[in-house]
Amino acid sequence: MYIKIGIMSHKKGILMKNLQNRLSVAFVALGLVALTGCAADPAPSTSTGAKPAAAANGVVIPNEVIEVIASEQHAQGAPEDSNMRDNIRKELVVRALLEKDAVKAGINKRPDTLIRQDLARQNALIRDYVQDWTKTNAPTNDELKQEYEKIKASVNGQKEYHVHHILLKTEQEAKTAISKLAKGAKFADLARKSLDPGSKDKGGDLGWTSPAMFLPPFSEAMTKLVKGKYTTAPVKTEYGYHVILLEDTRDIQVPPFDEIKPELQQRMQQMRWQAYIDKLKQSADAKDVKNADVKK
Predict the structure, then answer these.
(1) Contact call for residues 168 and 241 (beta carbons, < 8 A)
(2) Is the pLDDT of residue 204 over 80?
(3) Nearest to 89 by CA among 70, 72, 102
(4) What is the 3-state secondary structure (H, E, C) of the chain?
(5) Are residues 243 and 234 in contact, defined by beta-carbon separation less than 8 angstroms?
(6) Mean pLDDT, rounded, for 224-229
(7) What is the pLDDT of residue 124?
């Protein structure tokens, strides 16, 4: 079983910390910034010189506008539909008629409306720029392989643990459970009384995980156990008292390169994009400082 790439899913057990271990942090794929319009785009104008489609209710919709919207819907997974373009045209006609009524009402002259329109235009421009930028700055296959080797080296020698636990409210309840285990009781049976709803019906099984995913008292006790053994004293955390069973350990396994290549590519693109944004921020800060000096 391989460690999964990307943002590590949280365990259902209530003792889990909201942290990623060293490997998952290395694999976190933040994704590129999604820029959306701050307001609905105005209905398309026919003043661009685009070839118009047939008029409806006195409104002319350019075919090029319809194709842009259709292509965006396809990119989002919408299937090819013979009625798609007709539905788009009808929607755009309604929007154009609404636009006319808004203009008659003077909405187009309101300062707040003009600001939102400018923001929507700006967001659309930036969105398309981001898409082009990521294509132009995509990492090469050799760069992806180099990053893959770095990740492998970073987890070399680290282990993950397959553990079960029973979470109880009081120390005495935990001691009683340990006493029953010593007398031959099955761990899975005792786990049914666990306060952890995510593992109690699975024999207390927390699956394969890293020590970094647990609170320190839990991880320290877990890593000291021998395979097949359980803690002989209750382990206290902020959630209660635990009895921990170590089922097995193994070296962390990194998935094959081809399997995680898409995630690696996304991660490297995000790193490059963030570096670009940081450079822009530094440039802006430098200009602010310079302007402040001039004012003095």
Answers:
(1) yes
(2) yes
(3) 70
(4) CCCCCCCCCCCCCCCCCCCCCHHHHHHCCCCCCCCCCCCCCCCCCCCCCCCECCCECCECCEHHHHHHHHHHHHHCCCCCCCCHHHHHHHHHHHHHHHHHHHHHCCHHHCHHHHHHHHHHHHHHHHHHHHHHHHHHCCCCHHHHHHHHHHHHHHCCCCEEEEEEEEEECCHHHHHHHHHHHHCCCCHHHHHCCCCCCCCHHHCCEEEEECHHHCCHHHHHHHHHCCCCCECCCCEEECCEEEEEEEEEEEECCCCCHHHHHHHHHHHHHHHHHHHHHHHHHHHHHHHHHHHHHHHC
(5) yes
(6) 96
(7) 94
Q: Would you say 48 and 62 are in contact if contact means Cβ atoms under 8 Å apart? A: yes
Q: How far is CA 129 from CA 34, 48, 71, in A?
A: 12, 21, 17
Dig out the tokens for 9 from the structure: 């899913």
Per-residue pLDDT tens digits for 275-293:
999 999 998 876 665 666 6
**Where do the DSSP E strands lie in 72-231?**
159-168, 205-209
Residue 228 one-letter amino acid: G
DSSP letter assigned to residue 52: B
Q: Which pLDDT score is estimated for 144?
A: 96
Amino acid identity of residue 61, one-letter, is I
pLDDT digit string, tens, across residues 104-123: 999 999 999 999 999 999 99
Is the distance from CB of 86 to CB of 58 less than 8 angstroms?
Answer: no
Alpha-carbon 143 to chain mean position = 23
Per-residue pLDDT, 287:
66
